[in-house]
Hints:
5-stranded mixed sheet, D-Maltodextrin-Binding Protein, domain 2
Amino acid sequence: MTNLGSRLVLAVLLTSLTCGLGCKPSGDGTSGGGGGDAAVAGKRQFLSMGTAPVGGAFPVVGGAIAEVLNEHKGTIDWKVQAKGTKGSQENIRRLAGGDLQLALSNAAITYFAVRGEAGWEKAYEMRSIVTLAPNVALFIARADSGIQKISDLKGKRVIIGPSGAGFEMFVQPVVEEHGVKWSDFTQLNATQSGAVDMLGDGAADAAFLGGAVPTASITQATSTFNVQFVPFDEPARLRLIEKYPFFHEANIPAGTYKGLDSEFKGLNVGSMHMITSADQDEELVYQLTKSIWENREEIAGKHPAGKAINEKNAARRTGTDYHPGAVRFYKEIGLMESEAVGTQEAAPAEQATPPESTEAAPVDESTPAEAAEAAAPAATPAAEAPAEAKSE
């Protein structure tokens, strides 16, 4: 064969090989163009859900939701994995960076994150999927501390939650609405169990505690020493509810704790909620929201926080817009009527213990020492509550 013939044969072979690897067949639509897109859409999607350190409610609730989602997939083949993190603040940053696709967060912390306020260095584009358990919290003090009202915290040593948990995002508005500057008292950090110990040995004068009702740390405190339940000033409490959409009325019935002889007019200071980034795929979020709603009883069977996934609470307004995928589903089932994303009316004021809406685990990120009540129903009588609760 001549050199010219050899070159022609080689050229034909190379052309055939190249077309075999890269040319798009025409007519059947099974590859290339739309066929390739369909193949990508059909692949399993791995979704990481940020929770919090072991010991708080977030890891247990996140695990329960992930397990149910994996048992009940929508039209998308997903695999959800709950991952331990440092809590709400880390979750929000990792969602923004693409390391997480879903996360649990405290609604008050998310509220300020999406606005770039209260210490956040920028605005984070987060969206809510479902609102979960309420976080009913209040100041307690030793009865001999001289603290009778929130304004008496001036000059005192006050525990505001674990270091780095971000509790100041909802504690600071509370004290400032009562005329107390953040600099007017000494802030101390401790877990809920640690706070009770510090109050007991006189290392602190007051502590901001809460979560599910009854909160076991408060029960523990009342069984250890005489407690003053520091009341909210009613006009200030109502102003807080009016100013901040993550605050909701949540009253604690008389007799819930030793020494609580009358109803305590309290606050849900920031519900647990599931969030995602604003640019998450709408159909994916729609299918996730649908699966969570339709299988909420199974979630509740694995953890009491699932009881908060109900008509009054799931689409509750907390100040963070709902993702369009969640909005689409909530409109379909009649839970959301507004045309504006995330601007639905707040649910009616809630009592602290009705099983259909608030029999749930605490909301905040805490430490392993505070895990005892993670799966205990909130309806447990105060005298029989576990020795410790956790607060995310």
